[in-house]
Fold this protein.
Amino acid sequence: QDSDVDVLVIGAGGAGLSAAVSATENGASVIVVEKMSMMGGNTLRSGGAFNSYDPEGQASTKMDDSLKATVEKLLAVEPVSDAHKQLIEDVQKQYDEYLASGSDSLFDSPEWHALQTLDAGDYIGNIDLILTLTRNTLDTKKWLTANGTTWDPTIRTVIGALWNRSAQTTNVSGADFIAALSTQAEKNGAQIYLDTKAESLLQENGKVVGATITNAEGKTVTVNAKSVVMATGGFAANVEMRVKYNTEWDDLGETIATNNHPGATGDGIVMGEAVGADLVDMGWIQLMPLFPVSGGGISGYVNNAIYVNKEGQRYVNEDNRRDVLAQGALNQTDKIFFVINDQTEIDSVQIPQANLDYMVENGMLFKGDTIEELAENMGVPADNLKKTIEDYGKAVDAQQDEFGRATWGARLDNPPYYAASYTPAVHHTMGGLRINTEAQVLNASGEVIPGFYAAGEVTGGIHGTNRVGGNAVPDALVFGKIAGANAAAQK
Ligand code: ADP
């Protein structure tokens, strides 16, 4: 039946559940509607990487010359705006202080994280939003910990993350956030309804005042609310919308795979547009370079891995941006590439032997005690692969290669060797509802639409043309927390 509530949250992924916890903490009554039969959305599927400046966790990572060169390169970029100029000045000052301190552990700060995020998005991201993200990740991380999230102690670089600041949960899975936040939200009194789909927003005199919902019995009901938080995620699983908005790739039609959950159909963008929300950066759609083809794999970490094509050769700098990695892979034979690891990475991420054996026995992962044996199992020329791995060993020693790699781990000389095959797949839609730093949705004139908040992948403006790996989950959780608190204060 119809109901009345302070805050209606649409979507029970990372952003929605974060908003639900934060809104209830701030005294609001909360209803969360989720159209699927389970919570979690894309957040559940993700590896849960959470990029954050974190002085304690990062202390063991050493700063070297190639990392210094990365910082100096971005500091030398011609500013595109006053805000960018200010950001460069702030980072320069911090970097000078860091150098003067004589520290050899990793240089990091919210501003440096912001500058890298801005650069990776080709300088079209909104700097205020980016700084709101990077200046709140650490607090949000602590808040998540207080609300039941537990972490793997090692900070790494997930694919496309560009810097050693990716924290992950104990199970290296976004499911950990969903479990912790949904438990907390319910403990705080939020009501979560599954199989319950928001169809459209209700608006009175410009203010958003609830939504029309199809409930689990298939009935149309109304939820009246003082405010609504839109947290429906992106549209990577909606082929029509992909094709309509894509400006970046030759083809994003149905022949291109997606690794998204089937509910990522852009509903919140359509509902938002109908009440006058402005859309931003809609043409930029991210392909995840690593969509499993063979089906297995060791890890998404760059440090101890190389990528080779069907000819057994490297073709790209593995610690590059995701769009560069995806385009690089699309240019290879059959759009296929292999990630090569050895025992070092297995020890590092501690994969149980039974899982490894299962993947190898079922053809999901190729294994070799020698490189020749690995090459044979992969179906690539052994001579080429041997030379590639030898050359890579020399590059590790020199901390330098022809592709411009800056993230170095161990040489690949610790057998057994493993490889899994991958192709790029549609992963994240950077565009969406335009918001301000308070997570309020804006119309085309830049005015706030009263009562209307949004967070997570349904929003646009932060990631620009290309999202940094490990920035999506903090985006959803940081802005979800902000949206929930502000929505709770809405009269
Ligand atoms: P984010 O990371 O931004 O939180 P997710 O993909 O993790 O995005 O979560 C979005 C959630 O919203 C998914 O669980 C999805 O099923 C849900 N959702 C999408 N559209 C609707 C809708 N119309 N009504 C209710 N829930 C929706």
